[in-house]
Protein 1
Amino acid sequence: MKVRSVAKSVIIGFTGAATILAANCNDGKAVKLVRAYSQIVACKDNHIIFQDGTKMLYDDGRTKSFWQLLNQPDIEDMFYYPYPRGRGSFAPPKGDPGRIRHEPLFRKIYGDSAAAVKRNLVTINWFGKLVRVTRVNGVAKHLMAVQRELRALPKSYWKFLSPIGGTFTWRYIAGTKRLSVHSFGAAIDINVKYSAYWRWSRGRGYSNQIPHEIVEIFERHGFIWGGKWKHYDTMHFEYRPELF
Ligand SMILES: [Zn+2]
């Protein structure tokens, strides 16, 4: 396959010299992006093509360490860890499915600044509290659908969901220079009180109290759960339909 040079690509996700070894839009992953996001129309010549005609390099062909996967991922790297579903998907996680994010892609889809993201925020009522989430890709509607199903669970489940931990905040992930998906209004933290976060664990290892029924409802509507990460964050759900 003929490959465009890095210099010709419109937007690239890292700086420095890179050798493109492979360019592969036909790997079964690119098509998931096209299906999941209306803003993405195709993958061609190793580039994701957006509705407005702009392009982003898909696969930089580099072999990466875990640090590089987190900090210098290309779009294809976002699929490095498959997101597990169904029976057996609640075992203590070995990988970090969904934690690898090509930030320029999210900036392109949801807004390139706090102000740009805010223009697409709408207010929803989450178990009695008003919060702001993006309407892009129907995230607000999907969250309302999630809530309708959650409200049908026995009331004993509600303590995990309310009071809500938070939705939109333009901020970096703790200890990193990477923007959280909360910055794009496409993530929600449920009740912090019943949650476990790897940075708070002081090396005690994986733990979780969130019932799988709650997780499965979010997943049905395109949200991945931070409790399926080795670097776990069990209050956290984010809209990542390309991973299903
Ligand atoms: Zn979160």
Note: Residues 182, 187, 189, 233, 236 surround zinc ion (CB under 6 Å).
Protein 2
Amino acid sequence: MDALELLPIPLPLSANSAQLSDFGREVKNLDPGNLNAEQFAALENALYHYGILLFRNINLTPEQQYNLVKAFDPKTESYGHGNKRTVETDKKSPFYGMQTIPSVPQVQLIGHGIVRDHEGITEAKLQHPSHKSFHRFPLSDDEERAGFARFYHWHFDAAMYDLKPPKVTALYSVNVPQGPRQTVRYDDGTGDLLSVSLGATAFTWGKTMFDILPNELKSVAVRGRVRYPPHPFRWMNPAHAMSTGVMMETEGLEVPLNELPPWEEHKIQTLPMLWKNEVTGYLHLQINGTAASEVFVDPLPEDAERVGALYPEGAHLTDLKEVRDLLNTLLRPGIAPSLIYPHDWRDNDLVVFHNRGVFHSVVGAFAEDQVRVFHQSNLASLDLPLGPDDQDVKRWA
Ligand SMILES: [Fe+2]
């Protein structure tokens, strides 16, 4: 990694700097739109080691952004949710307000407010996702005016049906409105709060999320798989998220499978709870909890310690409440305020993150007249992520 100058990312005071010392790096003196093979190899290595790479004051065209993302997974062609040119108009969709850039359909225009004559788009009415249309118990207008906010939806970028999870996402800020800081309220009985800049993107590292779990939950995670239903975002559309944005409330509102758009069994994804980093070999907890419908846990290996073990004989959970209770137990520790890097955006920032090793959420709310312009790109991979190997199971089960 000699060719790269890598600095720690600016962690906030709320962060546990010891636990996050290897999470994120700022890359200096490198133009991510014009990399030679050697520079790219060093950058790729850094991404898998540190999870997030930040570049400041970068000029990057949508074409260059696409080429950068594609370099991490050269066989890919399609945007993470497909290459259809779309404007998402469903207010409850997590993709509401996204608009495809016509000349490079693998790059999306996202943000807030009215944007005119931008990259071939005459006019776009963008909408920053609001927790108010997604959470079961949203903040009141008064609470928002007082500066409180929520994590909108913790996830990694993936369709979770047919198209396979992208390896990398690149977020590029063209225009960032400034405003007072906001305080994220978890509202899950813990009293947890996190101070963030207006419109921050919150990141937590799947590696840390696994490392901090107690042994009995590590054992479940290393033996566990999650099944996602067909068209998971359509399926969960009428349902509501918990106030942390990490899991859904169970109200029986999901769309019945026979009322979803046509689907095929072989396109359904059942993925390991832990994904093995293809460069470092570390295990990352990667569960899109809000979109999950079933859990499988393999039995403990014969020689494993059984005292205090959960699901020693294995399990197949199909009751949504039970599935969500378990997944919340696994995911919630990893979104503690001390484990989060909330990125404070400036104009012309580029954040490239390892989408198969990092969990993130949109935060906060903008006023009607604030204009935010971002370009986002990720590409559906042709391969599924790797799960734990036999040695991992032996070590952690
Ligand atoms: Fe995302």
Note: The helical segments are 37-50, 62-71, 141-145, 206-211, 215-223, 232-235, 320-331, 390-396.
